[in-house]
Design goal:
Strand content: over 45%
Distance between the termini: 20 Å
Number of domains: 3
CATH architecture of the largest domain: 6 Propeller
CATH class of the largest domain: Mainly Beta
Helix content: under 10%
Shape: globular
Number of strands: 31
CATH topology of the largest domain: Neuraminidase
Radius of gyration: 22 Å
CATH superfamily of the largest domain: Kelch-type beta propeller
Strand order of the largest sheet: 2-3-4-5
Largest sheet: 4 strands, antiparallel
Number of helices: 4
C-alpha cells in the first residue's frame, strides 16, 4: 500500500527533496529566496528520519550552486562556483558531504570555460550536472561554452575519483553511435550496481508534434534530439573503462528515432518499466526489462493511454475529452475503469488514488480519494510532494 509521510511541519522556508536516501533517512535542501537575496544558491541540508520525523540541519558553505542529482546514498556531492577575473572561466569547487557524520571535504577544483555569458556562474550552475555514484566516485557534466542548436548539450563528462584526487574524461560514445553528452536524465540504481541513462532531451508529446510536422511538410527530420536511447551500464565496468581510457561497455535496452518516443515509467528492485510510442504504427507499448536476467515483457495498449506504475502493476490513464482535469483510470489486471479529477495523478493502490491540482493562486494541493467511492479521504494544502516508487512512499513537504 502507498504510504504518506507529511514533513511539512519541519520547514518554514523553501526546500526541495533531493535523491539521496540511506537507511531510514530522506534529504531536503533549502534554497535561497531569489527575490530577497537577488541570487540563487543552496543554503542548507536537512536529514529527516522517516519514522521519528527528527531532522538534522547542516549549513552549506557560501556560493553552493550545484547539488547532487542522483542517489549516492549517504554521500552528498555539491559544488561552490567562483568566477575568475577574466569573467569567462568558472572554478567549480567540487565537494562531498558524508550525511552520517557530516564530514565535509573538497574533492577537486574543475575549471570550466564559458563564452558570451553575462553571468558565468549562473550559466554553469544552470547547465552543469553532478551525478554521485558512491562514496568514491561522481560524474561532472560540463556544458558547452554557450548553448547552440545542432550540437550536444554537454561538451564533456568527467569521472572524479575522490580517493585518488584524480579526474578522468569519459569516452562518451555508445555502441549504437549515440553519446552520453546527449544526456536527458541519469539514475544510479540497483544498490549502485548499475547506471541507467536516457538520451535525447525531448518529451514524447514534443516528439509527436515534431513527427506530425515532418509528415505534413514531407521533410527530413533535422532536430538533434530526435534520436533517443535507454542505456544500462554496469557501474564497476564503467569505472574501469573510463580509468583505462577505453570505450564504454554498455547495453542498449532500447532506442527510438523521430518516428517513436521513449519515456521511463519507473524502476523498482530489479524491474525497469518504460513506455515506447510508435507514431506511424499507432502503437503504445509498455515494456518491462529485468535487470538480473536481461529479459523483456511487452504489452501493447491503446495509443491514447498514459502509464502510471506501482510496485505491483501499472494503470492506464486517459484524459476525458473536453475536460483536462478528469481522467479515466483503467486497471488491466481486473479490467475495471474508474474516474478521478485533478491536474495529474501521483500514485494508485488498491484503496486510494492520490492526485494533485492547483488552486486559484496556483498553489499546489494533494488530494487522496477512496478508489471505490470516489470520496475525498484527505487533502494537503500549499504543499510540494515527492513519490518514491521503490519505497511506495509519498512525501509531503
Amino acid at each position: 500500500m502507498t504510504k504518506i509521510l507529511d514533513v511539512s511541519c519541519l520547514f518554514s522556508k523553501r526546500v526541495q527533496k533531493v535523491n539521496n536516501e540511506f537507511n531510514d533517512s530522506v534529504i531536503f535542501v533549502e534554497t535561497s529566496d531569489y527575490v530577497k537575496d537577488a541570487e540563487f544558491c543552496y543554503k542548507s541540508i536537512s536529514i529527516v528520519n522517516i519514522h521519528s520525523i527528527d531532522a538534522i540541519k547542516y549549513n552549506l558553505p557560501v556560493n553552493t550552486k550545484i547539488i547532487n542529482s542522483s542517489n549516492s546514498k549517504e554521500t552528498f556531492y555539491y559544488a561552490q562556483l567562483y568566477s575568475q577575473s577574466n569573467n569567462t572561466t568558472v572554478n567549480v569547487h567540487l565537494r562531498k558531504l558524508n550525511l552520517k557524520n557530516l564530514h565535509d571535504m573538497e574533492v577537486n577544483i574543475i575549471q570550466v570555460e564559458t563564452q558570451e555569458q553575462d553571468e558565468p556562474t549562473d550559466y554553469i550552475a544552470l547547465n552543469s550536472k553532478i551525478v554521485g555514484i558512491n562514496e568514491r566516485y561522481c560524474l561532472f557534466f560540463v556544458p558547452q561554452k554557450k548553448l547552440q542548436y545542432g550540437i550536444n548539450y554537454f561538451s564533456k563528462c568527467l569521472l572524479v575519483d575522490s580517493f585518488e584526487n584524480k579526474v578522468f574524461t569519459v569516452k562518451a560514445e555508445f555502441i549504437n553511435g549515440d553519446s552520453l553528452l546527449r544526456l536527458q536524465d541519469i539514475w544510479v540504481i540497483n544498490d549502485s550496481q548499475n547506471i541507467l541513462i536516457k538520451t535525447g532531451r525531448i518529451q514524447d508529446f514534443e516528439k509527436r508534434k515534431f513527427w506530425k510536422k515532418t509528415i505534413e511538410n514531407d521533410d527530413n527530420p533535422k532536430y538533434i534530439d530526435q534520436n533517443e536511447s535507454l542505456v544500462l551500464l554496469n557501474t564497476q565496468l564503467f569505472i574501469s573503462n573510463v580509468k583505462n581510457n577505453e570505450s564504454l561497455t554498455n547495453i542498449i535496452i532500447d532506442s527510438a528515432d523521430f518516428k517513436s518516443a521513449l519515456s521511463l515509467c519507473g524502476y523498482c528492485g530489479h524491474k525497469l518499466t518504460y513506455n515506447k510510442k510508435m507514431f506511424e504504427e499507432k502503437q503504445n507499448i509498455i515494456i518491462t526489462y529485468m535487470l538480473n536476467s536481461g529479459k523483456f515483457e511487452r504489452k501493447e495498449v491503446a495509443d491514447s493511454y498514459e502509464i502510471i506504475c506501482t510496485p505491483e502493476k501499472h494503470y492506464l490513464i486517459k484524459t476525458i475529452k473536453g475536460d483536462s482535469t478528469r481522467f479515466d483510470v483503467h486497471d488491466p489486471t481486473t479490467n475495471t475503469t474508474f474516474q478521478t479529477t485533478g491536474s495529474g495523478i501521483i500514485a494508485i493502490d488498491k484503496e486510494k488514488i492520490i492526485t494533485y491540482r492547483y488552486d486559484e493562486k496556483f498553489e499546489q494541493i494533494v488530494c487522496i480519494f477512496n478508489i471505490h467511492s470516489g470520496e475525498i479521504i484527505n487533502t494537503y494544502q500549499k504543499c510540494n510532494f515527492d513519490y518514491d516508487l521503490e519505497r511506495n512512499l509519498i512525501i509531503i513537504f
